[in-house]
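Protocol step 4 of 6: record predicted structures for both targets in the notebook before any analysis. Target 1:
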Amino acid sequence: PFVGFGKFVQYCPGTWCFIQMVHEERSLSVLGYSVLYASLMALLVLAIVLCNLSAMRNLYEMHRRLRRRPR
């Protein structure tokens, strides 16, 4: 909606709006916006998973180094 394609739809019971995810009128702009939005969200989820895996790996390496160090 912000860049000229896609549109907002009011959902039941009429208290909130969201982007239209189905293209009933066969509008490519609605489909394009839905695909763009879903792709961006998938990339964000992937980035979060990769960051969490990296943090877990680093914490595990730190734990191993501390256990090997002589006391």
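Target 2:
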Amino acid sequence: MQQKRHVQNKQKKADVPDKDTQKRGQNEEKVLEKIRLARNMITNAELLFAKGVKSKNFADVLKNGQERLAAALSELESSRKEKK
């Protein structure tokens, strides 16, 4: 009986990620959210342009989205290199 409990406790400990792994996962989720937001900005700007909506800040929104996407992608790449 004690041996069975010991095995169950080991399995519980194995299921819980350590704090470093958990923190890296949270950071990666934040970066992925930044990427989603940047892609949405670009898509929205493209849709407005396709509809023919004339906007002075269209180019600024598109450029800003592209810059955010590039920054988030480089951040994601560097965080993945740290894992290795």
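Step 5 preliminary note on target 2. The chain has one domain: 21-83. Helices lie at 2-15, 19-51, 58-83.
Proceed to step 6 after PI sign-off.
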